[in-house]
Specification:
Six copies of one chain form a homohexamer. The first copy, chain A, is of the alpha/beta class. Chain A has one domain: 3-Layer(aba) Sandwich (Carbamate kinase), CATH 3.40.1160.10. Helix content of chain A is about 40%, strand content about 25%. Chain A contains nine helices and 16 strands. In chain A, a hairpin with a 4-residue loop joins β9 and β10. In chain A, α2 runs parallel beside α9. The radius of gyration of chain A is 19 Å and the shape is globular. Chains in contact: A-B, A-F, B-C, C-D, D-E, E-F.
Chain lengths: ~290, ~290, ~290, ~290, ~290, ~290
């Protein structure tokens, strides 16, 4: 049983959330969850609770996920070797069925189930459903064939809107569709394009790094806030994993998304603290 | 700046609220605020914040208020003496204009203003507006004339519904209308009748006592939970101030209101703690 | 029992109203009722009937009222002296609570009750409700402090629209709100600003003068119709009481209000005759 | 220009209409107009004005018309002889095309045009449109063939509701449809069946008689009010023209129509006086 | 009973219709049916079936009809001689009542009945209903009086939209209204103006010619497709019957109608084949 | 290019479909597609076209699919042996991830893609999404543990209704959810339960047999129509694969589904012919 002092502390925390709830109510927030964040079940369950609370106070949430580590494991089991060119996974036709099986057949329903347990009305989707993610096959940096890898041509946001209006939380696996084949698309790129298409107020990347470093080797150089044009200048010096996030963030910011956050998903309730308290976490990028 | 440990505490409190938000979202809660609770501005502002948070997470709130102490002051200033019969204030015609001036012209707009500052879209009403509180003149326990004092005949809930559906929070002063004259009605009675008419899930009395005592003289006999039929039996032994609350609570519970709470409004954030945490405060009456 | 000849007369009058009803159906009309018009109960009841008829044939009505004479009486009773600068009542903080008590706590519910008796679904409001009348403290002509007197910054018409759409008639007391304090605002100014914000077809001032005189001293110089620019030129020569009406009328006409009428509220059914018959009364100002 | 005294008279008449408008607003009234009433253009134009006023104050009106005299003229011109059996016109197949040409091709559009001039949004219909009047061929009193004469099987009220909801006034010619052929149906019968199907508050027969007489030969025996069961008893003694009205009125009253009026359409504005004043005209039948 | 091979053929035809249905679903198509096409009952019934199928797959259909041949017969019977000036029928006042009787009282309800048998919810209208076809009296080529003949001033499409939204198919007779009199209007002109007013995707003329000929005398010169400007140039050389179609088609194409078709209504199911198969019939005019 | 004779044939087929379209428009049809039907791409594409046509003419379609053969292959590849008890696949926990990978990650998106190519707005779902298929773990006929195999407790049809109302076609993989784990459910059972929950007019099983045989060994004993109670009696004698279909069909028919069809999916366009022509195929079961 709570003591009187603890009770007052609780009340204070709830009241502190008041202005944030007022600000974000009815707004749309796109959250990109990296595959790493979903590997630890306890961790994933905390993220699910955070998202459920956001949804219950009236925030419209769209979740985008990839599944890099899990795909690598599955491909290794099937005898494929993980090969990357310019941050893009080379995806032979046979490999694509493994990629899709993992993203659409495993990670997506697992995440939907977890969100349901936290009380969200989650609906799993891939870019193939209602052709949400219209994509085209892309090539490697030197123009080489890299298999069924795609880049987004356009996002068809109607189904997302129908679901959000109905009180559902869409959970989108980063698989695109070129009208004939499924294509493997970088989930960071998907998140940015989706955020732009649903007029999101915020785009949040839940990562497994602390945020953006001015100097990648120096942990003390964490940037807590920067402008889009600064990020643009930093682009060449960013780590390979951070580059698609940064590029996608810039796309989103240029098309009206209000803010992009790169949060350390390893901090428990990072999402909640970022949205509902004055606790600054990770890096935020302003237009 | 919050430390990591504090941040985790904050997150824990917010997550603890999750199941309560889920339960009450879209439900209607009627809150009766006693005049005493509104005399201390700091206190009133805490109550306003609690109500705003409840509203922002999707609870439909109707506020009912009286203004006993303030009316007594104003009547004294105007040379009237406060006289009560059976808990009812004797209200001569000239006194009624003071009563209404205080309730409708002072307390109501003050409360509306305070709620606005906390972010609610509050709309002040009296029972005269759209004839919400249809009432008839009543008499004292011995049938004696007690002036413009009324009892509720019926509650016309349409305007309340229109406002709730539009996202507004109605704030209702306990003044009724008999088609010709305004009538002074006990605010506790109004709260119960309104709760019944809007199908409230909860009716909360914010009072200046700890709750209901089994033995009125013994502070240790506070009852934390009881059933309607038990309350019915206790009725004769209750204090004069508690009697209209109890009678009105029984009316509400018999017509489908889910629960009635008698909270100690002097505890900061009593409302919030009752609604969003496992902290039991005051007395709750079940059907 | 009506004779055949009388019956035909009745029918003729009803039919004469046909084109006017056709014109105004679904249109919004703002009616400003001066405090004087409300002092005589019989008179007030005629006005209420006129407004009820207008509402029943489908006109959307917003009523704005002040209460000059009544405020003066109440302030005198409380020992304050009525002092005016440039047509604005000097309102010390303590006086403001009297002003509000009279406007919001007495005149407004009295008018609402009267309109209810005539069959309108009237809802009393002040500018504090949902912050309808956002205002700022103003100063006297020489920059001197004149107390809690305000001027309108903006009108938040959402609540008015919600009520009109729901079939209600809002009755607005001329009290503004600066986010912290109630402010005394000239009711003529409120009427003009509200008419502009609700896209009114007509703004009607029910006054206790015959209309506008070309030469203030000469009763024979009553102007029955003039243009906004003519009114603008006449402004300096107008009586002190007419000046805020004229200024506010110009604001309304410049922001799209179709016509402004200055009617002699002492003529029984002036409103009805103006709206539903070919009888020209008072002064009308065209854009 | 109206004098002051006349103006006050006008206002009084308008105000007298207030309670009637309040009562009938949003209610549905079916008005059956006999062919005779439409022969005199001036008269027809008065009826149109009455209906327009009723519509403008929010009454939902459905008009049903026949056209006996006009049909007789047209048939005579075409060399047919008007023959009746039990009040039903014998209608040979070739005659039916004349009947329909007159009702649907002449009287209906003429009436629609007249109502438009009075400001109604009138829409002409026959029972063939959307198969509103599903009918079957009937026979004479002795079972003899009487041609394309029908009786109503059911009224399909959907199209009427769509039009009323859209603000239109349906004007229905008394032609039914058996799925293959148009059928000539007594317009009084149509009016009663339609009133029942649209849940009309009132069914009004605009006739060219004063009302119902207790003793058909005695002009002094006009009945101003009677009950359905009294009418039932009087049925055999009624004139042949009155019988279908009476039978149809009984059907309507038994299925929930509130009142049936038999008005003397030759009195100018009979409709208006009946609906908006205390002037009792003709005969009213209560359930 | 169908054989397996026939079954496959059937399936193939249905599947062939798929892309056409996809294209036209929810689109509005105006079909003008000439009087000739309605003379043969069997033929008319095929047209009705075609229209019913179009409606059932979600096409919004407006039908416009004239009735030249039938009017000529009726006028001859009544002793009038059919006289034309510049393609316009000279219509003396007395003749107008015959014209209207035939179009509104005979052809229109006959067509409505036939469409009902095919399952459409057809509603007969003339331009008088809700003043759909506002028209003015026109004169002959030499300025001579040609009687009650009109040209369209504007089309009031609200009633058409209400009916289409309600799932009904309006069937419009080519009679206009100048606020006082019905006017005889060329049905081809009506079709073009209506198509423009309802933003039709297609305007189809069901005629009794094969289409447009380059050289009117040479059957081999049928044009299967041409552009609006080509049609414009051909205008002087067209037959008298084709001229109003062509002029009206140009009006429609200039105001946004997508395509105009001139089909040979004598080919069974010409409408269906044009809309749902790759079979090109008659002439199509592109903007 | 089509000849005239072919054109007429085409038109005839389209018109033949008219009464069927009229009947099924706006109705809901559940189609269960067996895994076998999806193995042949050409075949699957014909089924997709049939479904697209049904959807375009206004039928609301819900698709349910299993994937028996594909699951068997995948399990064999992963070293599992396909074992069945009483028609239920024994599904060890590790096997369940293969089952789900195949159904949700491969067959479902492949089918969605194919339906998109045919013009449907298809949305892939599993019973985990919004907890559509609430299920519990079941046991074998002897009460033995058979792993993650479930039976349906209830169908949550809200998401299906939201999608159907929005014009989408839900495609549901037969995976249930017990609040913690995904469960393998017989797709035939899912189809019946879903049909009952969405008030389907028809439930169609697309199978790879001709229909129901009276005598399983005798191809000549195909039953073309039978009643639910006859099916009930035949139940014990049915093949193991037909038993769940039959049991599920009975559940559906008892809860209001209008008809159940067992069609031979190997016949091209079996679905289309059944729905839009008089061609009887396979077996139909009536309530």
């Amino acid at each position: 049983m709570t003591t009187q002092a603890q009770a007052e502390d609780k009340a204070r925390v709830l009241i502190e959330a008041l202005p944030y709830i007022r600000t974000y109510r009815g707004q749309t927030v796109v959250v990109k969850i990296g595959g790493a964040a979903l590997e630890d079940p306890e961790h994933a369950s905390i993220v699910a609770d955070d998202l459920a609370l956001m949804s219950l106070v009236g925030i419209r949430i769209v979740i985008v996920h990839g599944g890099g580590p899990q795909v690598s494991v599955a491909m290794k089991q099937a005898g494929f070797e993980a090969r990357f060119v310019g941050g893009l996974r080379i995806t032979e036709p046979e490999a694509m069925s493994i990629v899709r099986g993992v993203l659409v057949g495993t990670i997506n329903p697992d995440l939907v189930a977890r969100l349901s347990s936290s009380g969200l009305r989650a609906v799993g989707l891939s870019g193939i459903d209602d052709s949400i993610l219209a994509a085209t096959k892309t090539v490697g940096p030197q123009g080489e064939d890299i298999g069924w890898v795609g880049q987004i041509e356009s996002v068809n946001g109607e189904l997302l809107a129908t679901l959000l209006d109905g009180g559902y939380t869409p959970v989108l696996a980063s698989v695109g569709y070129d009208g004939e084949h499924p294509l493997n698309i970088n989930a960071d790129e998907v998140a940015g394009a989706v955020a732009a298409s649903v007029n999101a107020t915020k785009l949040v990347y839940l990562t497994n790094v602390e945020g953006l470093y001015k100097d990648f080797g120096d942990k003390g150089s964490l940037v807590s806030e920067l402008k889009a044009n600064e990020l643009d200048r930093m682009l060449p010096s960013l780590s390979e994993g951070m580059q698609p996030k940064a590029r996608s963030a810039l796309v989103a910011l240029h098309t009206g998304v209000g803010k992009v956050h790169i949060l350390d998903g390893r901090i428990p309730h990072a999402l909640l603290l970022e949205v509902f308290t004055d606790r600054g976490i990770g890096t935020q990028v302003l237009p």
